[in-house]
Amino acid sequence: MSEQSKEESVALHTCCGPCASACVPRLLECADKVVMVFANSNIDSAEEFERRRAAAQKLAERDGVDFVAIEYNHEEWLSEVASGFEGEAEGGARCERCFLYSLRKTAEYAAAVGIKKFTSSLTVSPHKNSKKVFAAGAAAGEGFLEMDFKKKDGFLLSVRRAAELGLYRQNYCGCEFSRNMV
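Structure (tokenized):
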């Protein structure tokens, strides 16, 4: 994007600090303001949620962007997303429902504060299908930006930046069902 066509503000659904570490610099190239939105009720415990939230907030402070954490409610997530989908394979229907849930929370926050565009750090991971994330984003609300952050070595950049910044890097997506996959 040229300087003239920069977005005013973009809300970045932030799955974790390491993934967002590759996304924030790219977003700052095309937006005047980035707000990291940590909307992750899928995370299997309040302790793990806090570890990931702290890492994401550390990144936001380091990169000079705003940060907000949406209230953690794993019980609601289990009821609305996972119920009946517990046995789904990783990357299947439960994950698609999870993407939609988290992106909807991000879209709702963005709309409430007047941010017209939002996207997600989920696409930096080689373990996430970007087309499924894009579909969830489009269904979550108006203004979703289809940005595939894994392009241009995005995942490698996220691994390097996370190490440089000393960010906590988890080894599973977040829910108890993904923990069974490691």
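The beta strands are 7-13, 31-38, 66-69, 117-120. The mean pLDDT is 94.
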